[in-house]
Design brief:
Number of helices: 14
CATH superfamily: MetI-like
Strand content: under 5%
Structural class: mainly alpha
Number of strands: 0
Order of helices and strands: HHHHHHHHHHHHHH
Number of domains: 1
Helix content: over 70%
Distance between the termini: 32 Å
CATH architecture: Orthogonal Bundle
Shape: globular
Length: about 270
């Protein structure tokens, strides 16, 4: 089999996979603008007119903007914590080689393969004993769970893509370790940081299990919890559900299109570390 044939087969498979991912999203958005009678007639046809009543109804019934604000707060603060912690940890592990740092790196990697089910109950009991359920302590949990993969990616990126000569030149000019990290290394980590931002944002934004376990008060509910409430209250009103799903996807689409060019380069560089 020639290389050209293999490339064609690979492109065909990618096209099929992309099509299978895009079609459900397209149908969700399209049917969110229909009325229930129009949806009952056909699920696959384009709506004759755009009905925005579904969106206004969802916003009112689910306190959408409150849930949106909660999700934005949890996601953004968690991302800041994950990126700050892992940037400093990855730089120390990569540039200051020692047995302790090697053990720390192995522990971070082991955290990537640990099933969440094994630590779910201990997390609940710990936060319950500290009276932290129903609070923003969820952010601490996300930071703790997110540092493993982020450290793995950033460590590989620093080792493969950040020339140590630039750091040495900065030190000769009088820069200390903090200035070298924040003014020399971090600007060069932009592809990896944007990759981690995208991947962790998708995970945190769409996560339902942790918020359902820890956010016991309605005023701190995130978007996934509000969508479950919408489905439970309006089980037969599919157009409302489609509108709610579309609203929940919109922020992630905006984030994805703003940083998609960094995703492949960041993941590829992070996989180099052996």
């Amino acid at each position: 089999m020639t290389r050209k044939t293999l490339r064609f087969i690979a492109q065909l498979l990618f096209f099929i996979l992309g099509f299978l991912h895009i079609v459900p999203i397209f149908l969700t958005v399209m049917n969110s603008f229909k009325t229930m009678p129009e949806l009952s007639k056909s699920f696959l046809t384009v709506p004759p007119a755009l009905h925005f009543e579904n969106y206004t109804s969802v916003i009112k019934r689910t306190f959408y903007f409150r849930a949106l604000g909660n999700s934005l707060f949890v996601t953004s603060v968690s991302l800041i914590g994950i990126l700050l912690i892992t940037t400093m940890a990855s730089y120390a592990i990569t540039r200051r080689r020692s047995k302790i740092n090697h053990v720390l790196y192995i522990m971070f990697v082991m955290g990537m393969v640990m099933p969440f089910a094994t630590i779910m109950i201990p997390i609940m009991k710990l936060l319950g004993a500290l009276n932290m359920t129903g609070t923003w302590a969820l952010i601490i949990v996300y930071c703790a769970l997110g540092v493993s993969m982020a450290t793995f990616v950033l460590s590989g990126f620093i080792e493969s893509s950040v020339p140590i000569e630039m750091e040495e030149a900065a030190r000769i000019d009088g820069a200390n370790s903090g200035k070298v990290l924040f003014y020399v290394v971090m600007p060069m980590l932009r592809p990896a940081l944007m990759t981690l931002t995208m991947l962790d944002a998708i995970w945190i934004w769409n996560d339902y299990l942790l918020p359902s376990l820890l956010l016991t008060r309605k005023n701190v509910h995130t978007i996934p919890l509000s969508q479950v409430f919408l489905v439970g209250q309006h089980l037969q009103k599919w157009t409302l559900q489609f509108a709610g799903f579309t609203l929940s996807m919109l922020p992630l689409f905006l984030l994805f299109f703003s940083c998609q060019k960094y995703i492949v380069s960041g993941i590829a560089a992070g996989a180099i570390k052996g």
